[in-house]
Amino acid sequence: MVAVLDQKRAWAAAAAVPDPEVPCVTVEDLGILRRVELVDGVAVAQVTPTYSGCPATMAIEMAIEVALREAGFDVRIERVLSPPWTTDWITEAGREKLRAYGIAPPVETAGSVRALFGDVAVACPRCGSGDTEKISEFGSTACKAQYRCRACAEPFDYFKCI
Questions:
Q1: Tens digits of per-residue pLDDT, 79-127?
Q2: Are the C-beta atoms of 142 and 122 separated by less than 8 Å?
Q3: Start and end of every PaaD zinc beta ribbon domain (predicted)?
């Protein structure tokens, strides 16, 4: 019973770590925290970066390590690259948090050719209008595109499908 409680406590500590580039969502919301297991008294956290060149990968891994150490665990972080992360792994709660923060969540599944190579209909996270236009393929980070709403005239980031 104690081991199960420690396992849950370790998961909760790691899962609460916010993404450094999009602090409204946690590593759990993004689906990049794959697993936290206790192995011989060590909390082993498995993390999948959003993409291989993500500049926040080390910061995320270090933040998870700190959170687990502060919760009283010895820690080992394992980077898991296969299968690769996709935006399909973002939880429904994470999508809502992105929208509330002013970032349009991905609207297509990651396997969609249209999502990767075509334009998608992106609703404005502020007013909900579908009358939007892409301004730039890149927004505040490489994983987001910059859009503008024609209805409310507000610019916003769109979390691209990967």
A1: 999 999 999 999 999 999 999 999 999 986 655 555 555 567 899 999 9
A2: no
A3: 112-160
Contact status, residue 160 vs residue 106, Cβ threshold 8 Å? yes
Q: Does domain 2-79 sit in CATH 3.30.300.130? A: yes
Query: What is the separation of C-alpha 98 from the centre of its chain, rounded to a whole number of angstroms?
Result: 9
Q: How many residues does the chain have?
A: 162
Q: Which residue has the tokens 């409204």?
A: 24
Task: Name residues whose C-beta falls within 8 Å of residue 44's C-beta, 6 or more positions apart in sequence.
Answer: 35, 36, 37, 38, 75, 76, 77, 78
Q: Where in the chain is the domain with CATH 3.30.300.130?
A: 2-79
Q: Is 71 exposed, middle or buried (0-12, 13-18, 19+ CB in 10 A)?
A: middle
